[in-house]
Amino acid sequence: MIHFLIKIIFIIIIFYSKNVYVEEIKIIFSIDEDAYTSIDLKKRIEYIDIVTNNKKFEYDEYLEDYISALIFNHYANKVNVNTNNEILHNYLNEIIERYNTIDQEIYNKLKNLNESQKNTLLKHINYDYRKKLILEKLLSKKNINNNSLNDNILDIYSIEIIYFSFDRKYLENIEDINNLIESKKIKIIENELNSMNINYKYNNKKLTSLNNLDNEIKDSITNNKYKNLFTVINNNNFAVGWVIKNIRTNIELKYTFFQITSSQTINQELIKCENIDKLSKLENIVIKKFEKIDLNKINDAIKTNLNFINDFILINNNNQKSLIILCDLDYNKNLSKQLLFDEKILEEVQDIENEFLLQKKIEYNLKIYE
């Protein structure tokens, strides 16, 4: 039946005054022989845009989101996952009221939705709410221990690894690949790799643990540079990428740094926190300590440039040369651990969802026709 339907072109003719608008409707995928069209996806995209304050995604991301929502809903129907209509309506009202403070035009449109439009939004809210209930139940079966999160560097830094993996046959191109990766511009890298006919897989992962990481990647993480390249070569493939470390700003962070002022050039090899006492004994050098300064009192130059211990910036003021060096970071360890634990939960949920979808896409006979 689906193969017959896929050959049919539906035409909607909508008259606006003297104009005629024609839109082609295509069946784009099916689940257990239930067909879903480009119009269905368009409605899902409109819902996602409303929920995310018009944050735009790639078409493939919208499509995968819709497939995921429907597969979870399909499962919910089979196992009788029930939802409370009051909760769904409350959530819709929260979405509408949020726009009252951020976009009055959208707010007014949402306040004046007709029943059909409201029901469409409620249907998609129901998809996501049922998905949430299922994932919570699956997550409850996992044993995640907050005490096991003991990577101190992750307490202070949010760490992400971005890398491209390749078959070993492309090792002969590794110099060109490394040159591309140095740009750290994903779209440019992808375009150039495609033009070179090099097959690759792009990966982006936020870390919640340093366990099971290759030593090359660990070295890049513990290095005090803002972004660090790494190359990992295995028996069948290799990966080239970089590490992004961003200091956490929501952990009651406090900086301790020293301002070093001199009329002479300071040997940069000596500019380390462990050398502060030694530097203080040199002539024509004045050192001032700033201890446990709240993040919100730190100027932008320090926030931007001083992220790791022994990071420093140079400041020229007339004939005086000054530098500021970061020597300690104090923070709320309990709050940081909780944030890291929350990130671990999100990672587990994503893994659960991916595994669930991998299984159910086969079980429910997902077919994509694009």
Describe the structure.
With 370 residues, the protein is α+β, with helices and mostly antiparallel strands. It has three domains: 40-141 and 359-368, no CATH class; 151-247; 254-330. It contains 13 helices and 13 strands. Strands 6-5-8-7 form a four-stranded antiparallel β-sheet, with helices on both faces. Strands 10-9-12-11 form a four-stranded antiparallel β-sheet. Helix 4 runs antiparallel to helix 5 (104-111). 15% of the residues are buried.
Gist?
By secondary structure, the chain is of the alpha+beta class.
The general outline is globular
Order of helices and strands: HEEEEHHHHHHEHHEHEEEHEHEEHE
The number of helical runs is 13
Q: How many domains, in number, for the residues?
A: 3
Class based on secondary structure composition and strand pairing:
alpha+beta
| Spatial separation of the terminal alpha carbons | 17 Å
What portion of residues belong to β-strands?
25-35%
Task: Determine the fraction of residues in helical runs and give it as a percent range.
Answer: 40-55%
Spans of at least 5 consecutive residues whose pLDDT stays below 50 are 1-22
Counting copies of identical and different chains, the oligomeric state is single chain
What value does the Rg take, in angstroms?
27 Å
Mind describing the biggest β-sheet?
Answer: 4 strands, antiparallel
> Widest sheet: strand order?
6-5-8-7
Average of per-residue pLDDT values: 86
DSSP strand count: 13
